Amino acid sequence: MLKGLMQDRPLLISSLIEHAATCHPRGEIVSRTSEGPIHRCTYADIQRRSKQVAQALTALGVQPGERVATLAWNGYRHMELYYGVSGMGAVLHTINPRLFPEQIEYIANHAEDQYLFFDLSFVPLLERLAGRLSSVRGFIVMTDRAHLPECSIPGLLCYEDLIAGQTGEYAWPQFDETAASSLCYTSGTTGNPKGVLYSHRSSVLHSWAACAVDGLALGAGETALLVVPMFHVNAWGMPYAGAMSGVRLVMPGPALDGKSVYDLMRDEKVTLALGVPTVWLMLLQHVDAAGLEPKEELCLRRVVIGGSSAPRAMSECFETRFGAFVVHAWGMTEMSPVGTVCNLLPKHAGCSLEQRLAIQEKQGRAVYGVDMTIVDDDGAPLPRDGRSAGHLLVRGPWIASAYFRDEGSVLDADGFFDTGDVATIDADGYMQITDRSKDVIKSGGEWISSIALENAAIAHPAVAEAAVIGAPHPKWQERPLLIIVRKPAQELTREAMLQFLAGRVAAWWLPDDVAFVEELPHTATGKLHKLKLRERFKDYRLPGA
Ligand code: AMP
Hints:
The chain contains 17 helices and 25 strands.
């Protein structure tokens, strides 16, 4: 083979912040801090301070490949750690603080974290946990001397003091791009969490895909609100892709309630916001309750929704009340996470809003780099007809091949990873998730999509949230049970709900019963916790069952 004669420069995460500091030095990073006030800095500041972080870690004796953990909200110091830790060759391990303390303990010990950086909010958590984190040599609270907490955490260091002693005169080391850069554990609902170990190369390639027009279409003209947390799949890669494209980043810190998010959107003239449906539900409820006029007050143009399915009713609300286009996206921790993005094609230009919303309900088309297929239970490929639903398999350079410190590869003979999702793909390549494979409702040998039923139910004006699970049935094996949280002060009966659904879903999909609850259980990443729900309703008898 004749080798090409192009420069062999490694794709390193440090190159992203170097680019931003050179080409977008005054690009702003706005953070709502744990201490309270809004903090403003630039990509140039982040570059300098992340170098100070790298120097400080070197002085602490952190070696390349060692893990350095964070328990932190979205903010500028967290971003400095993204670049400082990975840039010096260590591995940034972002821990989800919403996990149970036992899971955090398991994860930190499994990862053998050497140092742990944390936000002020997590002082009580670490007071309880610190003694059980056997590999951790030091705890660094991400604040300044004035806000240093009185606490019992052993060997406590102060972030600002730690980096203040460093010059920032530092040349990023150059090394193999396949080196590990960061680590994120999946929040599986069963068994122990599993570590997904990203590389510099996978992270940089993923950023390119995120920036692309048919990805998230990022550029320096955009002000992006990262509601999606930096402790969950690297905030969908935005701290990297943002630096690559010079996006002005707005970080909400710990304040994710509807009012705080809305106020930040308004005050910072946010044009693009990214988050999971549960946080948008809180935002929409706030807008309703406070009687706001988002279209008049906000500059929001696009909302990226992923992590769970974006119901049509939510996309419609953003479109009509905010004047914002919902970009539905799908991915997973094992995929860095972006797999598909729902952008429109030229042929959709003349579509009515109704027709367009039907497309936006789909999770979208694969970005370049993600090779996607659906197969039946025997592994045979299914047609791309928009109707045949099968197991969704993926492969590509930012998709996991194995879990950290776990047995062997997770790929099949053709190099595909089974996402655990069930989906259809249509002739234009739009993929639609119908379920998690363990959540599909198997009724008389046919599959009923719990997601489709939930999305139909949530369109009812009195419904705040909906979940559908399969309940045992003597004749059909399983039948759908719809579980509803009503909006405050709203009336809704079982009969009215079923009547609303009739005509909106196939007759044989209609739930056999409707249960009303005060709230639904969620996982640490804001998804419906179906396992818990099935446990809660395990003795439930459907009418006629
Ligand atoms: P996680 O690894 O925690 O990010 O979870 C990944 C899983 O979330 C996927 O395998 C899907 O089951 C689900 N998911 C992510 N995005 C979407 C979406 N847009 N619609 C439906 N499910 C989604």
